[in-house]
Structure formats: C-alpha cells, structure tokens
Amino acid sequence: MVKSDSKAPRLHAVTRLLDGAPDLIGLADPEQPMLWHRGDRGCVGVGEVLRLSFSGPDRFAAAARSWRGVAEAARIDDPVRLPGTGLVALGTFAFDDASGAESVLVVPRLLVARHRDRWWVTEIRRVDDPAATDAPPPADGTGAAALPAAAPEGSWPGVGFAAEAVDDYLSGVREAVGRIDDGAFEKVVLARRIRGELPAGSDLRVPLRRLAERYLDCWTFAVDGLVGASPETLIRSTGGAVSARVLAGTRGRHPEDEARDARARDELVTSAKEQHEHAFAVQSVVTALAPHVRDLSTSEEPFPLRLPNVWHLATDLGASLDERSSALELVGALHPTAAVAGTPTSAAVAAIAELEPFDRGRYSGAVGWIDAAGDGEWVIALRCAQLGDPQPGSGARAVVASAGGGIVAGSDPEHELGETVSKLRPVTEAFAA
Fold first, then answer.
1. Distance (Å, whole) CA 292 – CA 219
2. Residue 2, class by beta-carbon neighbours within 10 Å (0-12 exposed, 13-18 middle, 19+ buried)?
C-alpha cells in the first residue's frame, strides 16, 4: 500500500555551499530529530515537505517507484553535485511484510549536511505552495537558527528500561534449537524487547550525541521516531560503486580487563559456531547482490570489529553496479539478510513470526537516505529504539528497544540472552539519566 498522491508532487530543491561548520546534532529538532551522522559525514533535516508511506511485501519496490517519480518531477538547483546534495529523503522500513509499522520516506524542508571538509545546505519546497519563495537559503547560515540550544546533560531525565518476557525468549531459543536439530532450518534470529517511558519535552539530542560520540564506527540515526547507532551497513551505492558490511557472530566486550577482552575476541574468531553463522550471513548478501552487480569481492577472512560494547565478526563487500538500480532497489533485494532473519530466509521469517511474541516494527528493517540520482546509504536498524507518539494528558512517550542473536545448532539459551544484554547496552546507556 502507498499512501501518497497518485501524481508525483513537484518539489524544488536549492543547494548552496556553507562557509561555516555548524553542529549537526545541535541543529536537530529536540523532540522530532531527523539525523544521519558518522564522524565527518552526515546530515540533519529540519521540518517536513513530503512524506510517503508504504506497507506490505512490495514496500521497497513501491518506494523505489514513488521516489523515482518524485525525483523526475523535481526542479533541482545543485552546483555542489555530491552524493546527498540536491533532493534527498530519509527513510525507515519495517522488518516484516505483515508489520503494523509504516515504512516511510520523508523529505525535510531544510537539510544541512557535511562530507569531510565540505558543508552545504539544501532548502526544499513544494512548487504548488503559495507561501514558498524561490529565494535560496542565506550563504552565511543554515536557516535553522531558531531551534533551541541543546539541553545540558544534567537536565536529561533519563529512561529506566524493564525487560519483557525473558522466559518466553529463553523458551523460544530452546524451541528454535530443537527445530534446527529436526532440520526445519539452519539458522533463525530471535529477538527480545525492553521498554521504558520518556517524559514529555525531553531533548532527544542528548542520547543522539552520546551515541555519536561513543559509537564512532556506527551510523547514528533518527528518522520518524527511530533512534539508534547501527554498526551494519546494508548497502552504500554512490556513482555506480556499491559496498556493504556484514556482521554476524558476537562476543561481549570487557574493556576493564585487557586480557579478558582479548580472550573474548579470540574466542569469537576461533569459534566454529560463530564462523558458521557468519558464513550464512555473508552468503545471503552475496546471493542477493549478484543479479545487480559485477566484480563482487569480499574480505579474504572475517575480521574482528571492535565496538565499545561488543566484538563482531565482520566482512566487507565491494562491487560495481551492473545496472542503474537505485539504492532502494538494492535494499529491497537484500532485505532480510541472514544476519537478521536466518537461513533459509522464508522458513526463518515464518519461525520468527511464530516464536517472537511481538511485531518487530522497524527494528532490523532498514534506515538511511536516498537522493534524486538514486544514490544512498542504508544500514540495518540495529542498536535502536522506537519512540511512540506522546500520550494524551502526560505527553510521555513509550521507548521500545530490541536486540537479537542468531540461533544455530548448539546455541545455548543463557548465552544468547547475555548477547542481547550486550547489544542493548548502546540504547540503555544513551537513554540513561
């Protein structure tokens, strides 16, 4: 289903270079931030010009078609001409075909962005909006100066999380291992949830800044109430070059004890179970990308990726587009990978629907951006939390975070539970008082 006008709206995007270097996170809306950030790259969106909503099994294909129509109808004044300049939408997509969560593409009114030492601002308006003008944004500013300053850390109220249905998760892992032993599937990824409540008026730039400063190797994002820092690049497609990073296989970090931390890393690298799980995930990505690319190459061996909370087994992939597929079409071809679903995919997804007592929503779906040329960057929505709408009366918002792990033959339920605790740490620490 597509909730949008049948005729593509006409947008006008004007991009201009900036001389200054504004604080991207500080420019984000405190209660409805729109952010994509990693080190010296990223963008922040302010306001909303267009929202396209999708659901069902064809949501990626429908989004790709709709976006192509919007891009073709747009007027774009873009002398900067870098990936992510001109017309841009940020988006987030649900994991499951039957999810009750909407998948969306959102075009901001104003986009301030950075790529290394270059900064720019893009103003986007609807051509049919009589209140808009053709005047470009000021060359010496961002047009977002009216936003309030970020709240100091001491005023952040914090969120206390409570775990949901831990016993159900443990029994689900045991049931999954039994089905694997019976030959129903080779791997299934099972997740569990924690839940908290965010007081009204809380400044979400505080947890976003914590994530961005602590998880330097991750993309910190905020799109339509989905907030997190993902380590796993689903796809990056710019100018015909395609890259991805596959993560599968995890050990909790012990940064307080160097020797113990090194043992955890070595156990991960030498574990037959983790290597087996990782090979499933890499093969699923290679198989999905093969029809769309050429000259596909991967890291010779999985390598240990160190994050503040966990070690991951990682493999990087690179390729060239064999056709002019957009980034959204590549996302649709890849989703869901074995890293978030299992192998074989259809059997694993069916088992997830049966063994997980909740709708994942956008967790383990896709989040990222796309420009008018079809270039974009998308990650798997991991290490994240979904914020609900403000509650009538109190204005408080529910905060739900999820984490999962790959269940294969021999998986131990208590070990898998511990792995989810490690994976939830980025969110629980970012939202803590």
1. 25
2. middle
Write the single-letter amino acid at 42: G
Helix or strand run (H / E) with residue 414: helix 413-430
Residues 6+ apart with CB under 8 A from 25: 35, 37, 44, 150, 205, 208, 209, 212
* Residues classed as catalytic: 187, 232
184-197 core/surface letters (b: 16 or more CB in 10 A; e: else):
ebbbbbbbbbbbbb
Q: How high is the pLDDT of residue 277?
A: 81
Residue 193 and residue 402 in contact, taking contact as beta carbons nearer than 8 Å: yes
Domain boundaries of the chain, sorted by first residue: 2-133+159-430
Using the Cα atoms of residue 400, residue 403, residue 407 and residue 411 in order, give the sign of their dihedral: negative
Q: Which of 207, 175, 68, 182 is nearest to 413 (CA)?
A: 175
Structure tokens at 149: 């300053």
DSSP assignment letter at 32: S
Say whether domain 2-133+159-430 belongs to CATH 3.10.180.10: no
Sign of torsion over alpha carbons 69, 71, 74, 75: negative
Pairing assessment for the beta strands 366-371 and 376-380 based on DSSP bridges: antiparallel
Helix, strand and coil percent figures for the chain, each rounded to 5: 25, 35, 40
| Residue carrying the six token digits 């694997």 | 180
Structure tokens given for 327: 């980034």
pLDDT tens-digit readout, 89-140? 999 999 999 999 999 999 999 999 999 999 999 999 999 876 655 444 444 4
